Amino acid sequence: MEQKLYFRQRLEAEGKRVLFLLDKIFKGTNSTDRHTGAMILVKQLRREGNLEFISTHDLELGEMGKGKDSKIKNYHFSEYYRHSKIYFDYKLKAGVSPTRNAMYLMKLAGIKIEASNNVK
Q: Where would one find coiled-coil regions in this protein (predicted)?
């Protein structure tokens, strides 16, 4: 609760630009509320001229950075696989990550992934 109050105070700091570092916004909420809340928050932060760095796995949130006039820029790290392990290069690259790693991580966890397992 203390973090939420601090965050609110920072948002209400009129005339001051703030740097926000946010990791997985609204983690622990359902996916619809998390996505909607994140979209609203990002738009509000942008309106107020703040600088924010946000880590997310929400691909739709990355769509906000599309368009030549967008002030939102997307960056990602690349991953590679060696000896049944995943590694990240930690070099910032422009754009939303073109790769997905959840299926690989599930296989490493022993979950059988088959073509017939397509869940929709």
A: none
- Model pTM? 0.68
Residues 101-111: pLDDT tens digits?
888 888 888 89
Q: Is 79 exposed, middle or buried (0-12, 13-18, 19+ CB in 10 A)?
A: middle
For the stretch 33-91, pLDDT in tens is 888 888 888 888 776 677 888 888 888 888 887 877 677 888 899 999 898 888 999 99
- Residue by residue, DSSP assigns the chain as -HHHHHHHHHHT-TT---EEEEESTTTTS-HHHHHHHHHHHHHHHHHTT-EEEEE---HHHHGGG-STT-S---EE--EEEETTEEEE----EESS-S---HHHHHHHTT----GGG---
According to DSSP, the residues that pair with 54 across neighbouring strands are 22
User: Residue 19 has which token pair?
Assistant: 């740097």
Closest CA to 11 of 69, 19, 86, 115: 19
